[in-house]
Amino acid sequence: MTVHLFGGVWSPSCANFALRRTIEYNASEFHPKVLQTVKTNFYVDDCLKSVPSADEAVYLVHQLKELLLRGGFRLNKWIFNCTEVIYSLLEEEWTKGLKCLNMNFDNLPCERALGMLWNVELDQFQFNIQVEPKPMTRRGLLSIVSFVYDLLGYTGPYVLRAKMLFQQLCRLNYGWDDTIPPEIAEQWGRWLKDIHLMRFVCGAGLVQETLASDTIYGQCILETLVK
Description:
Layout: H1 11-26, H2 32-40, E1 42-43, E2 46-47, H3 54-69, H4 83-86, H5 96-99, E3 110-113, E4 116-119, E5 124-126, H6 138-147, H7 156-171, H8 182-193, E6 199-201, E7 206-212, E8 217-223
Antiparallel strand pairs: 1-2, 3-4, 4-5, 5-6, 7-8
Helix pairs in contact: 6-7, 7-8
């Protein structure tokens, strides 16, 4: 079998298997950083990678292209937050949003990355969540909370507030379609009002915090970017 259906539940695992086989067959000819990028920075057909300099990015991009082409993978739709790296590739290899820009005057676009918005110009992950009205019930609350897709967990502290409200409703034995009590409805309304404030920045440097209580427990590592 040489072709897999797009969207098949088995397709991601087959793609990852083929990526790793490509690494194994060509490991002796490429730098370990290139091999490690394929192992740890690909999520199905997306590759997200941050490096300290434009020169290192240019080297990595061309090495990745050469390596994965040997496995039948032609990498394209590239985008970077550095024009020097962008111009190191042919225009036909750029993502569609770059081709219509004037690089001297226009800001770099926002792109989808792992289900989130990446503001390329500012180098930020952002969340633009448009919530449709739902009934004030357990079912409605869960529907909206589940709508916040965040693979990397950046919205965790914010979404946690809504999950705690859902937990209260479960403890009070409210049914899926029972109207929630006024005190929880008020807190839910405040949560919805603040949903547009979610905006997160990713960078280097780590600050670690640990939280534990009767209600929740967890650990958070905050990332800061120093330029």
